[in-house]
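ARCHIVE CARD
Drawer: 12
Card no.: 0347
Subject: one protein chain, sequence and derived structure
Cross-reference: see card 0346
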Amino acid sequence: MKTCRDCSANEFADQYVSIASKEKRKGKIFIDYLRNGRGATSVAAYSTRANSQATISVPVAWDELNKDLKPNFFTIRNLLKRLNYLNDDPWKQFSKTKQSITKEMQKAFKI
């Protein structure tokens, strides 16, 4: 399977979507190109979300991603277990990763 670096949401509509509607993005990877501009907001790693389950934004490594890992998996109840389980920081190489949006992707998303 190609990665987001190699394709656009239009090209692989069965796997990716750029529409914010939760109904339309079910079971797909949401490409939120609107949050990649100057002044856009985001949630910092380890931020608690404002919901009754107190879910937490948690960094994960690429090899941890699978169908069973849901956005609401990590909570204030299981975060310490997660942190104790880790041998390395999942984002250890984050600052060394170089990525860019290709001209083809910019054209596909009209950005």
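Annotation on reverse: The helical segments are 22-25, 79-85, 103-108. The two ends are 25 Å apart (CA to CA).
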